[in-house]
Amino acid sequence: MKNLLIRNLKLRKWTIVLYAVLLVISPLQLILNHDTMMNKVIYSALVMVLVVISVLDSGHVFRFNKKLGHKQSYDFFASLPVSKLSLLNANYITVLVFTFIGAGILSLYGISNDNYTNNTININFTLPFSYSYIAINFFAIPLGFKRYTEQKAEYISFIPYVLGMLIFLPFVIAIIIIGCSLLFDYDFEHLKYFKNFFNYGFLSLSVIFLGINYIIQYRKLN
């Protein structure tokens, strides 16, 4: 399995380099004077870059599958004289490592999620950034790679998955909550108390689904 992990790391070498750069320059945000126009421009550009990186790296298992060979990856690696269990564990470990490292480094920059506002009440219906990043990546395997970690489901692809998780799902949840509050004449201000329930509930579900999917794939090997 060691060689498989090394292979996976080599396939993500540019991601490692990028995260290393972000880690090194992260202290700069503490010394930048945001009162000057130049620093505001630099910080705004950095935020835009981080947003692009965070979007592209959400569901990074899809990009990893592309580097493995896309549709041919499962047929190729299944024919190799390596342990199927080692393949499974190496791929799961890779997903976990890059997810946690990515969430940790990106959270250093304090990117916040979109807020939905009703009058003067500001309620965040989405997860804290690092938690949402973890949850989206964890859900990617049960939804897109539920049979084998090297075989992507035909009905789902990277862009629709990311857009659905980052935009469509939060939007639908916000509409449902606002609609229910108006329909039942419920004080919108009290809904903020359900924020943590949704935030950590979504993360917990992703962990549960990932664990169940691993058990299912593990049993297929026996």
Give a short synopsis of this structure.
This protein is mostly helical and 222 residues long.
Task: Give the key terms.
mainly alpha; 2 strands; transmembrane helix; Membrane protein; ABC2_memb-like
Strand content: under 5%
What level of helicity do the residues show? 55-70%
Any idea what the shape is? Answer: flat
Average of per-residue pLDDT values: 78
Total count of helical runs of at least 4 residues: 10
Q: Separation of termini?
A: 18 Å
Strand order, biggest sheet?
1-2
Organism: Staphylococcus ureilyticus
Protein name: Membrane protein
Keywords: Membrane, Transmembrane, Transmembrane helix
Pfam families: ABC2_membrane_5
Walk me through the topology.
Layout: H1 2-11, H2 13-25, H3 28-31, H4 37-56, H5 60-68, H6 73-78, H7 84-107, E1 116-118, E2 121-123, H8 129-144, H9 158-183, H10 195-220
Antiparallel strand pairs: 1-2
Helix pairs in contact: 1-7, 7-8, 8-10
Account of the 3D structure:
This protein has 222 residues and is an all-alpha fold. It is 69% helix and 3% strand. The chain has ten helices and two strands. A two-stranded antiparallel ribbon has the order 1-2. α7 packs antiparallel against α8 and α8 packs parallel to α10. The two termini are 18 Å apart.
